[in-house]
Amino acid sequence: MLTIDDLGILRDVTVLEDGHVDVSITPTYSGCPAMDAIRADVVRALADRGFSDVSVHLVLAPAWTTDWMSAVGRQKLLDYGIAPPHPRTGSAVEIALSVRCPQCGSPDSRELSRFSSTACKSLWVCTTCREPFDHFKAI
Amino acid sequence: MPSSVAPQASMTSAHGRPRHASSEAAQDDGSTRWKTCQYTLRLADDALVSAQRMGEWITAAPQLEEDVALGNIALDLLGQARALLSYAADLEGTGQDEDSLAYLRDERDFVNAQIFELANGDFGLTVARMLVTSTYQYALYSRLKDSTDATLSAVAAKAVKEVDYHRDHATQWVRRLGDGTEESHRRMQQGLEDVWPYVSELFESDDLVQSLAADGVAVDPAVLENPVRAHVDAVLAEATLERPESTVRHSGGRKGVHTEQLGYLLAEMQHLARSHPGASW
Question: Pairing with A18, which of A4, B173, B212, B268 sits 20 to 30 Å away (CA)?
């Protein structure tokens, strides 16, 4: 299971002396519609483990980038069929890196659409095995 | 929607102060807090109105992929608008929240620049506007991320990466349509002609923003004009398009003066919240 910790969305968890749990999460994109569901899931997961006094708050700074995603998180995305993001180069020269097909491993792929099922992904197709796949964009 | 039914006494809402809460609304006391609130509302309304226009393309764009693209761009802008509206509500300190600011303000209380509210029209107009506004927002947020105001800085640092992608998307469309067929070129050029009279308003400055800029809180829109025009000109040249030579300059959005088209947009956006006050999912 891919966790919010793997994705770098979970920023901090603090347990205070009186048992209050404070959780900080950060959105991948400003308009990520999953934030409300994630917030509810955090509250539920903590309630299941006996923590009923919980606050979840959203932090924006420092801004999330795909570099917050762990190596384990990247591998889990790949296993699930989503091409993980490249490391961000920060280079002044724009270069397009090939995206490896998560199905057959071929680097011979092309972008079909710059946007896909969610804001954080683009839609690609593998030229070798012909399978379409999602790619988590590096930001 | 007609706004003339509002009581005359509260017509001072030219600064974006929500009229419906005028009795408790924060007054113009000249404080940095008040000015920051007004400035934040401008950025928020630009993003909110833009999100609403982009969202209108879903199921109506020229390609399925473009439905998805414009829908995702709208979502980014809506997320930016929510963060900014929430912050404006906090600064105002009269019990407003992002929803009341989005759904319960009247047309004259919106302080977006007029270019954002223009009806979508032809796809060429939408693309022309997206090129200008995303380039503007990119130039703005890449500077605002260094704001001395921690919240504006955080929102901008997040937004700049998103609008960079929007700008790239718009740039690709302008190249493709401008340097495409005779028909696509003609419609892309027409889109530019249609939005051009609204471009200069984006770079208008006033006392409020200049005073905030002096404190490092805001970015004076005047400094954005050269970088924005440089990028847009370069894209137009590549796309074999002509920069329009419009002498007409529409203005007034920052003072709550809008085109007829904003009223219709708000009527659609606000209808549910106003018809069913307090309704939630």
Answer: A4
- Backbone φ and ψ of A11, nearest 5°: -95, -40
Closest CA to B26 of B108, B88, B106, B111: B88
Smallest CA–CA distance, residue B186 to chain A, in Å, is 25
| Residues from chain B contacting residue A118 (CB–CB below 8 Å) | 72
Q: For B75, which of A33, A65, A137 is closest by C-beta distance?
A: A33
Helix (H) or strand (E) holding A40: helix A35-48
3-state secondary structure of A86: coil
Question: Exposed, middle or buried by CB within 10 Å (0-12, 13-18, 19+), for B276?
Answer: exposed
Give which of A83, A92, A96 is closest to A122, Cα–Cα: A83
Give the Cβ contact number of residue B9 at 10 Å: 8
Q: What is the pLDDT of residues A96-128, one digit of tens each?
A: 778 999 999 999 999 998 888 888 899 999 999
User: Which residues on chain A are in Cβ contact (under 8 Å) with B68?
Assistant: 113, 115-117
B48-84 residue pLDDT tens: 999 999 999 999 999 999 999 999 999 999 999 999 9
Radius of gyration of chain A (CA): 17
Q: What angle do CA B79, B218, B106 make, to 5 degrees?
A: 55
| ipTM of the complex as predicted | 0.86
Chain A residues with CB inside 8 Å of B69's CB? 113-115
